[in-house]
Amino acid sequence: MAAQFVARVIGKKPNCVLGLATGNTPLMLYKELIRMHQKEGLNFSEVTTFNLDEYVGIPANHPSSYHTYMWEHFFKHINIQEHNVNIPDGMTPDVPAFCKKYEEAIKACGGIDLQILGIGSDGHIGFNEPTSSLASRTRIKTFTRQTIQDNSVFFTNENVPHHGITMGIGTIMEGRQCILLAFGKKKADAVARSIEGPVSSMVPASILQMHPNAIFIIDEDAAHKLQKRDYYRWIYQYKPDWQRI
Ligand code: F6R
To answer: How many CB atoms lie within 10 A of CB 62?
Structure first.
């Protein structure tokens, strides 16, 4: 469903700007987009991308960098032009200057048309950990102990990074459309708190309640703590055709 959504945005605007996430969650999306490119001619030649985040102190060619992830799992299989790919530089000698430039580059492209998001089990989006300012811009962020522990599997025999560069919550909120993907029981609590809880920096994804055009695409496991899930199914059942993906 998310892939169809992305394809529709590209169909309407071939030179659209996509905001992209890494992690386990979007792997299926990237696989399907690759299939659509190879089998159905989905054309990425004019598409520009901005990734949400990258580890600080990890070179682009490190096997666990988000650069490597994006090229291995997506970019090398489609016809995107390298100069249209933007991923934060974890090795930049001047983090604040880099972050300012990243924000300017997004603006110079006309802003993000469609932002793809995953969600952490604590409700983080990008590397915006709980209590991140809801107005934050691209900046350095210190990871929680939990995030460091979660990431430790990717950094055998090395120091696990303690910092990331991430688009801010304010940056994410300026995307014209957001799609958040969440699968599995581990995400159920964060999903319920994001959709049905109060808007709070304690659950960064809850800010999406204030977004004019945000969609959560989640499976039954990730949905199982939603109090109003029958109502959401009802809404979906009675959606007018023109609203369907
Ligand atoms: C990564 C990102 C993170 C992940 C989140 C969930 O670019 O934006 O917020 O989406 O940590 O990670 P997974 O999908 O591995 O559960």
So the answer is: 18
Q: 163-208 pLDDT, tens per residue?
A: 999 999 999 999 999 999 999 999 999 999 999 999 999 999 999 9
* Residue type at position 40: E
- 19 contact partners, CB below 8 Å, separation of at least 6: 49, 50, 51, 52, 112, 114, 115, 116, 167, 172, 175
The catalytically annotated residue of 46, 89, 122, 219 is 122
User: What pLDDT does residue 157 have?
Assistant: 63
The contacts of residue 85 (CB under 8 Å, 6+ apart) are: 48, 49, 70, 75
Considering the chain, what percentage of its residues have pLDDT values greater than 90? 93
173: its two tokens: 């909120």
On whether the CB atoms of residues 127 and 167 are closer than 8 A, the answer is no
**Length of the chain in residues, anyone?**
245
Residue whose CB lies within 8 A of the most ligand 1 atoms, among 18, 20, 25, for a mutation test = 25
What pLDDT is attached to residue 173? 98
> Which residue numbers in the chain have pLDDT < 70?
157
Domains and CATH numbers, the chain: 2-243 (3.40.50.1360)
Which of 18, 67, 119 to mutate for ligand 1's pocket (most ligand atoms within 8 Å of CB)?
119
What whole-number distance in Å separates Cα of residue 176 and Cα of residue 113?
A: 5
